[in-house]
Amino acid sequence: MLIGGHWHDDGPKFAVFNPATGDRVGDAFDGGAAETAAAISAASSAFPSWSGQTAFKRAEILHQAYRLMVERKEELAQLLTQEQGKPLRAARVETQYAADFLLWFAEQAKRVYGDILPSPRVDQRFMVLRQPVGVVGAITPWNYPISMLTRKLGPALAAGCTIVLKPAEATPLIAIATFRILQEAGVPDGVINLVTASDPAPVGKMYLEDKRVRKITFTGSTAVGKMLARGAGEHMKRISLELGGHAPFIVCKDADPIYAAKGAAAVKFLNTGQACISPNRMYVHRSALQPFLTELTNRVSRLTVGNGLDEKTGVGPLINNAAVDKVANQVRDAVDHGAELLCGGERSSNAELVNGSFYEPTILANVNPDMLIYTEETFGPVAAVIAYDDDDDVIAMANDTAYGLAAYVYTNSLSTAMRYFEALRFGIVGINDINPTAAAAPFGGIKDSGMGREGGREGIDEYLDTKLGGFSI
Ligand code: NAP
After folding, report:
1. Which of 25, 225, 279, 412 is least enclosed by beta carbons within 10 angstroms?
2. Is the CB of 220 under 6 A from ligand 1?
3. Dist. CA 82–CA 452, nearest whole Å
4. What's the pTM value of the predicted model, to 2 decimals?
């Protein structure tokens, strides 16, 4: 843990395991309420001088952190794969994505502008100033454990906030490595604080109850996000929430089904399906169904499941055995309710993988609303396919979910693309595009998928208060 510029070297620890092998990768200190309170004190003491720095100085430090992260990309990616399981190639991509947020917000730091407004009175002037909110309490998940850190640290630091961050229990090591880089880049003592913990509840409680924390930023499940939002309401704190999703993936009758199946195979099995924007329901126009399923099955059957450290691996393990059980249960339930299993549908039988949390890439056809998978976030390597006949019906079905994070549409018609883009009630829509994300783009959802945006021009706004000055002259 990093508190007030000092790394803890004493106290109880918890172990971190490689989900591909079950081997212990390392340990992290087990923090609780006392460490969180100390970290909040450090962040609070550091706030006046950090927020008083010029934006240019803060940008320079973020630029340096970006350079260090890119320089150490390979070493970070190796650690990420061992701790989280994703294939090395994906770990390198995620590490670059993480670095991109540092670069983007280094630039955005210098673009926090105010406003001079006209007044109805001749003897009055208005000035609008944007100031950092203060101490931020952040909580991040394990599925994208380095990019979710910098997506919060980048804008918070750029805006002039100080921060306490708790990473997921499964992935504290990559957080430690990231904080070391920021410290080496010149972030002053107390500005960034890291509390690792096996029990997250006391940390969240302290963020809510300590009056010095003015903003909470959370990425994780909808259940925990709602609990934090209730607490933030009670204590009147700002909050932004990046939560779960249940993305529709629609293949229209005018789409190329082969191209759409290629996209579906790539995006569904990315990070072993453990992504908030992973397609959960694939709606395919009945006329395109057969070629789509044939191509998807061909591609998915060829995916290589294995240890992410092996360069040949296309699909890594799930994060733990509980995640495997959840996926197996959804598949069983779907088959019991009439789904057709086209491939996969079981734990990996490869003898080399028995100690890891592996599940075979799976395709289910004939999925219907009576199945768990139709409404529950899967977070695993299962493509669930549903045939549809009518545009209006499929838009209604796609929108019929409590979630509102990402949606995907394949079409070769500009007017169909525009119609779906406007009608789908999701924060992000990929049109013939399976990766509608970048540091420069606003990421976030509506409804049960959360509130607020990360990245883009909007990302820094979450860490700024607006102040109005009225000047009588
Ligand atoms: P999670 O169980 O909600 O955990 C997320 C973080 O919250 C972890 O650091 C966790 O700590 C912590 N946490 C859990 N209970 C808490 C409590 N009572 N008080 C304070 N903190 C608490 O979610 P997850 O399984 O790690 O992540 C998967 C979810 O995140 C999925 O639903 C996914 O869709 C969502 N996600 C969303 C986005 C997005 O941008 N919208 C991005 C990535 C993931 P522990 O690890 O110690 O339990």
Report:
1. 412
2. yes
3. 31
4. 0.97
